[in-house]
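Section 3.1: Structural characterization of target chains.
Under the original work plan, the team committed to producing a structural model for every single-chain target entering the pipeline before any wet-lab resources were allocated. The record below documents one such target. The sequence was received from the expression subgroup and is listed exactly as submitted; it comprises 386 residues.
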Amino acid sequence: MPEPITPDADNARPRFAFTIAARDGRARTGTIVMRRGEIRTPAFMPVGTAATVKAMKPEAVRATGADIILGNTYHLMLRPGAERVARLGGLHAFMNWQRPILTDSGGYQVMSLSELRKLTEDGVEFRSHLDGSRHMLSPERSMEIQRLLGSDIVMAFDECPRADRPLAEIGASMELSMRWAARSRSAFDAGGAHAKGAALFGIQQGALDERLRARSAEALRDIGFDGYAIGGLAVGEGQAAMFATLDFAPAMLPEDRPRYLMGVGKPDDLVGAVLRGVDMFDCVLPTRSGRNGQAFTWAGPLNLRNARHAEDAGPLDPRCACPTCATYSRAYLHHLQKSGEILGAMLVTEHNLSFYQQLMAAMREAIAGGRMDDFAAAFARDYGSV
């Protein structure tokens, strides 16, 4: 079981504390307090795969409103290496981000290397996609890497099969992930000073099956975690199937702990998941789309490469107060994208991350005011009207 959540004698902030300030239906808003700062929920975490949120300086990421970012265990273990990051002072110092960092376990990335890996009870042996070198990633090694990185929120090591796999295979994978979750708990707790200052999240698996999800949640509750993630979604099943699963999956997890939907998603995915009780999200979509000329706006996504923007002197999104929208026209952003200029990726990424944080702030306000259903209805009406 996790240690009781109590303030640390050497720090005014607790190791980990989650407070729900308001509820509106199943939607919740609150605050996670950790030693490196507070995280307002619902929260969106920009993805900093290789110790960088692509096309953004850390201070610019913070300026968008982000309270926490995500780092990637798999990529960082391969380059520059977790041991090197530790020697250089840890991930926070290495990338100059002094607020909380959540690191994923590496399991999802390793599982995607279907032709380069071998799965056993011990863990996963795989070849690096960079140079073909052999590596072994187990629950114990994943905890060690995340400890070396200095992660604030550590994710248990798991397997994430596609939802379209046979049910028996999904069930066996879920049971393996639960055994790995117990090993992750033990290895994390043996982490000395890091374990005393960080938090560990377990990951519910079971794809779209309610019975398997219930068994997974029960196993995770028995082990005990600081927070609980919903894994195995946003892997090709489609929004309707994802929402159908979220109609039951979050409620299986402890009410008093944060619920984190991994790898999600599009703005309308976020609204639907918050309505169903999810507190935390991450996704590469706003940064990846920014590099490819897709901007998210309150009226829906738009493609800045489209010729209709070539002489549009208006702002990217009239409802957005980010520096990109306050300064540059759609015509200029169209020009940058068509010219392949790096600045184009930077400006649209800045806007997209700002939009995502504005969306989360609007939902927090709506929940606190008891207006989440009205907000969701208005968002659904307006989004896609570009």
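The longest helix spans residues 342-368.
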